[in-house]
TrEMBL record:
Residues 19-183 form the Helicase ATP-binding domain. Residues 208-363 form the Helicase C-terminal domain. This is ATP-dependent helicase HrpB. SUPFAM superfamilies: P-loop containing nucleoside triphosphate hydrolases. Keywords: ATP-binding, Helicase, Hydrolase, Nucleotide-binding. InterPro entries: CON_HrpB, DEAD/DEAH_box_helicase_dom, HA2_WH, Helicase-assoc_dom, Helicase_ATP-bd, Helicase_C-like, HrpB, HrpB_DEXH. It comes from Alloalcanivorax venustensis ISO4. Residues 787-811 are annotated as: Disordered. It comes from the Bacteria. PANTHER family: ATP-DEPENDENT RNA HELICASE HRPB (PTHR43519).
Length: 811
């Protein structure tokens, strides 16, 4: 480009090739690292493409923050306001006009556009930006666009852009050429500063930020809004402190992104990783944490968990310090800690009801009919189909029903959409819509109130205090008002919509409840709902045992008889009795796992007993299983491979194992009735059921149980050691070794704990050659007088390795 408004960006070098691919081959996959300029330069370059005619270019961004920022940056490059040539559209905000030719949208908007117009008339190209984030909506959108191109619009151009994804399989699956661009990142000095064992992590983070504040603008990556506020309270710096996260209103986000580049501290979630540019950043402090959903398929619950980022995320965050010149990145975790290469795709981490319903409306009942970089997992797909049938959204042949279309028309998950539809039919349109918005959008100032009725009263009384919620409500419900239904009808509506979340207080407890789905939950201390007999629990922290209730609606005594009439039934139930510590069989009248009346059941079936025993394991935890050191080490090895390659290896954490007991433990429970009967259970064989064909052998090859050292001895590796796999071996047995054995093709470092002849730690190192050069001399000086019978050569690399004393042939 020759226009002086355009400054040079690395992606400019590949724009001619990219335009040629779209012209001649209909699309491309662009691999461009952070800083290349792909998000904003590429769409502008396509404005002059002859194949565009007068049609629009559609650009997909994974987040609302990014959509607004990208559109705003491109509009400024053209010297125009947003909404003219460049506009954007998100679920809560739209700025487009008849003159708009580049339309930046969030990924869910594309699905709705395709539902209304499968041919995407008026659009010449679809660009997927930041596809490496692998959101569910991006995977779905790409699958649908690819089918549109094959069946309806051969002229529709497709461009998929990614910064960190291995694009080979993607380009091959789409049959598109790959174009690669260089990035523009100056050298970034990366250092590690983990907190001490007993040190508060956020105090430590604050001290690190304060020490770096004099070096320019500091961008701090934190997992969530709570951590942002905690850190802001502890910071003591003379420069301005700003925050950036997805819950901020658009103008507040823009104020941070467009602020002058003077020194400041910006506390941000991972919204600052990609597609947005914060001016002036030269220093990054990375907590190494992010908040992502974790899905429990058994109870159909997702919870946000704080966990370690991937290596790709870490690289992108560090790169933010090198946009303007040489920068610094301080990582608040140990250098030896190993990160997964990429984040796990969202399609493997969430319920699939929305996906199944979207595809059913599209006319697709089998996901294998479409292109996927990674297909939807079969188990969650089947579970989602069953739940949609129960809602009435799918018929017996899994085709979408009229109710399913009504649910799909709403910008909500199907269960929340069902709440809104039922509320309209019951004369509670406005109240149901408010509740749906409160359940789908978390807002500071409201999300700490456990009582939904109180949260609803506060929002209804002062909607202007939460403009994002008010905007979402307006788009969802328009000007609908509640009809003549009594105020008390909202509780039964919630119970009928979420019958598995009906909960009853446990006997003798003020704050502990049993839910209809069999899970336990408790109210937080001081909750005004304590002591209420019946609740509808709408949100918890998601823990599989004794979850903390975050949001609930109390059901009054007059509502309970009608609730039981609609939802309670007599069923044979074999369940775990915590007091008796064994399975108890009863014929129960109740709602799910909540018993109102019961009678003894004399002859339960073996299958019922096994399910009751599974309930006992869930209540007691995995500790009741017969773990051995060998079994724990095997589990740790498998868990490391999941951490490195989550898309190929199953998770082995407690929550996942407890949620999926039916798939790996149930086949080994025949004939067992009490926890004491589990003592001789072949636990290792059960865990191996989670592996795919050939994975057991691959586990042994890539992460062996033992490593052979220079003395010839095979030493057991401790895969449960803090910081990563560790080899505890006497120092003399490693003479002559310049490096430790490689694990997982060199992707997982092995640390050596070098021991004295008495078996006490002398040194810990992952770099043997460096230890012999720089650390051994001091160790030799300190220990050779204490252990004179053992060899302490001046040149350990030239000495023979031995586990013996000098008198016994050790040299």
């Amino acid at each position: 480009m020759t226009d002086p408004r355009y400054f040079a960006l690395p992606v400019d070098a590949v724009l001619p090739e990219l335009c040629r691919c779209l012209e001649e081959q209909g699309g491309a996959v662009l691999e461009a690292p952070p800083g290349a300029g792909k998000s904003t330069r590429v769409p502008l370059a396509l404005l002059d493409a002859p194949w565009r005619g007068d049609d629009r270019i559609l650009v997909l961004e994974p987040r609302r923050v990014a959509a607004r920022a990208v559109a705003g940056f491109m509009a400024r490059q053209l010297g125009e306001p947003v909404g003219h040539t460049v506009g954007y559209r998100t679920r809560l905000d739209t700025r487009v006009s008849a003159s708009t030719r580049i339309e930046v949208v969030t990924e869910g908007v594309l699905t709705r556009m395709l539902s209304n117009d499968p041919a995407l008339e008026g659009y010449a190209a679809v660009l997927f930006d930041e596809f490496h984030e692998r959101s569910l909506q991006a995977d779905l959108g790409l699958a649908l666009v690819q089918e549109v191109r094959q069946a309806l619009r051969e002229d529709l151009r497709l461009l998929v852009m990614s910064a960190t994804l291995d694009v080979g399989p993607l380009a091959e699956g789409l049959a598109l050429p790959t174009v690669r661009s260089e990035g523009r990142v100056f050298p970034v000095e990366v250092s590690h500063a983990p907190p001490g064992r007993d040190q508060d992590v956020w105090d430590h983070c604050a001290r690190q930020v304060e020490a770096l504040a004099g070096e320019g603008t500091v961008l701090v990556f934190l997992p969530g809004v709570g951590e942002i506020e905690r850190l802001r309270e502890r910071l003591s710096v003379s420069m301005p402190v700003q925050v950036l996260h997805g819950r901020l209103a658009g103008d507040a986000q823009a104020a941070v992104l467009e602020a002058p580049s003077g020194p400041r501290v910006v506390l941000a979630t991972n919204v600052a990783e990609t597609s947005v540019t914060i001016e002036g950043v030269t220093v990054v402090v990375d907590s190494g944490l992010e908040r992502r959903p974790s899905y429990d398929p058994r109870r159909h619950r997702s919870r946000l968990v704080t966990r370690r980022i991937s290596q790709a995320n870490a690289d992108q965050r560090a790169g933010r310090a090198g946009r303007l010149g040489p920068g610094r990145c301080v990582r608040l975790w140990a250098r030896e800690e190993v990160l997964a290469r990429h984040i796990e795709p969202e399609i493997h981490q969430t319920g699939l009801e929305s996906l199944v319903l979207d595809l059913a409306r599209w006319g697709c009942r089998d996901p294998d009919q479409l292109f996927w970089l990674g297909p939807p997992p079969a188990g969650p797909w089947r579970a989602a189909v069953q739940r949609l049938r129960a809602l009435g959204a799918l018929d017996g042949q899994d085709a979408i029903t009229d109710l399913g279309r009504r649910l799909n028309d709403l910008p909500l998950a199907p269960e929340l959409a069902a709440l809104v539809v039922r509320g309209r039919d019951a004369g509670l349109a406005a109240s149901a819509a408010r509740v749906a918005v409160l359940l789908s959008e978390r807002m500071p100032g409201l999300d700490r109130q456990v009582d939904l009725a109180e949260r609803l009263r506060r929002f209804t009384a002062r909607p202007g205090d939460w403009p994002l919620l008010q905007r979402a409500l307006s788009r969802l419900n328009g000007d609908r008002k509640d009809g003549s239904a009594p105020d008390g009808a909202l509780g039964p509506l919630l119970a009928d919509t979420f019958p598995d979340r009906i909960a009853r207080r446990r006997d003798g407890e003020e704050d502990r409840y049993l839910l209809a789905d069999g899970s336990g939950a408790r109210l937080p201390p001081g909750s005004p709902l304590a002591g209420r007999e019946w609740l509808v629990v709408l949100d918890t922290d998601g823990r599989p045992r004794d979850a903390v209730i975050r949001l609930a609606w109390a059901l009054g005594p007059p509502e309970v008889p009608a609730l039981l009439a609609r939802h309670a039934e007599w069923r044979d139930q074999v369940a775990w009795d915590d007091k008796l510590q064994k399975v108890r069989a009863e014929r129960r009248y109740g709602v799910g796992a909540i018993a109102v009346e019961s009678q003894p059941l004399p002859s339960p079936s073996p299958a019922q007993v096994e399910q009751g025993l599974l309930d006992g394991v869930r209540q007691q935890g995995l500790r009741v299983l017969p773990w051995t050191e060998a079994t724990r080490q095997w589990r740790a090895r498998a868990a490391w491979l999941h951490r490195l390659e989550p898309e190929h290896w199953p998770a082995m954490d407690d929550d996942t194992l407890l949620a999926e007991l039916e798939t790996w433990l149930l086949p080994f429970l025949a004939g067992r009735r009490a926890l004491r009967d589990l003592k001789n259970l072949p636990l290792l064989d059960a865990l191996k059921l989670r592996l795919g064909p050939g994975q057991a052998g691959e586990l042994t090859r890539r992460l062996p149980e033992r490593a052979t050292v220079a003395s010839g001895r095979a030493v057991t590796i401790n895969y449960e050691a803090e910081g990563g796999p560790r080899l505890a071996v006497k120092l003399q047995e490693c003479f002559g070794m310049e490096s430790l054995p490689a694990l997982a093709e060199g992707r997982l470092p092995l640390t050596a704990e070098l021991l004295t002849p008495a078996g006490r730690p002398a040194a810990i190192t992952a770099d043997l050659a460096g230890f012999w050069r720089n650390g051994y001399g001091q160790v030799r000086k300190e220990l050779r007088g204490r252990y004179p019978k053992h060899p302490w050569p001046e040149d350990p690399l030239a000495a023979p390795a031995t586990g013996r004393t000098k008198a016994r042939g050790g040299g």
